[in-house]
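Researcher: Re-running this chain for the archive, since the previous output was lost when a drive failed. Same request as before.
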Amino acid sequence: MLAEAVKKELQAIMGDQWVRDDKEALVTHSYDGTPMLQSLPDGVIYPASTEHVSETLKVLSRHRIPVISRGSGTNLCGGTVPVNGGVVMVMHRMNKILEVDLQNLTATVQPGLNTKQFSTHIEGLGLFYPPDPSSMAISTIGGNIAENSGGLRGLKYGTTKDYVLGLEAVLPSGEIIRTGGKLMKDVAGYDLTKLLVGSEGTLAVITEATLKLIPPPKYKKTMLAMFKDIYDAARTVSSIIENRIIPATLEILDRPTIRVVDDFAKLGLPLDMEAILLIEQDGDEETVERDIQRISEICRAENADRTEIAANEEQALKLLTARRSAFTALARLRPTTILEDATVPRSRIADMVLEINRIAEKHKVQICTFGHAGDGNLHPTATTDARDQDEIHRVEAAFEDIFEAAIRLGGTITGEHGVGLVKAPFLEWKVGSVGMTVMSGIKQVFDPDGLLNPGKMFAKAARKRVVIEHG
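Model: Regenerated structure tokens:
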């Protein structure tokens, strides 16, 4: 619970109804999309402006109270769980599109804006905002920026960081900083914009973002490639890229995922296949038709059982929607679903798929694999039961082995979910002890009292080292 004096100070800034410490509010904001993690905050607040954020942070800083900024809480790394108590700052009231600049092809928005609503609005203006995390119907732009969210279109179009041109953010002291702007070129000093993107709320609270927009593709085509061997499917991904073709979307689903997605979405997917690739290409019509034809040839050369092209836009949309529902569909299997995002170079995607299967068998756990195969970002997903402690320990050991395998293959512990609480013990594997020292120094400059999202990213102790396999 908040001290009464602090509560009154916060109420004076944003109004009584927007400062809560009742049980309902505390429990509701004690967890996020990550399973088996929960911790009660001391209070929940709902600012409506940059001024509210600034004045609030001055109060919280003076009283040395931690603050966790939060969008919709869809993240999967424990990034918004208030493990040290403090105040959860919910950004949903700051949800406006402040400007769409058609001359510069930019949009300036507040962080609480829903990602899907923003994307739909921009498409209605004949423009395109490519970042499309699977949670986009629920997540916010601010949350996407904090985690540097990816999505199905990341292979061709990049991730959130590639579309953030400028930011307004508030430091824990209450001071407001502005980075970047509507500029295509800007090398004046360190790139603070890119530093804040993906910083997971540990450096500043983002209050405004200037985003890059682009013209939409004129033509799209979607296809399925079906394989009786998952290794063949994974190898095909590398072959497509090696042939200098960059699809807009290149996703993989293994057999268990195919089955649950089809049961969930009723699409008539091929249940006798070990894996399918979902491929979309966009651009001008001639190029798309040529690419799809060549991709079909590559798939058959890599032992695809068959390929099918979506008959129309409606069928293509259903296939993409089904892929986005993979996590939801898998969550129906057992009480607890743990989704991870180990990432490797695209050339090692087949090796990583085999590693995941080997590790699941070794630990006797069920792991389904799907993900953004085209950019090496796999989502091994364990279906388990939090009440079975022995199985949970085996699942945790399996994921530790998966992270180790990813790094050994030249990859990383997370491609888009972030470090947060879950991956913090493994971060030093990726960046090394010197990298950890540099990151800690940056954190100290921005947040000397450690009040912004404490307990995240920096583990108390690193786990064992791993050796990276080159090649």
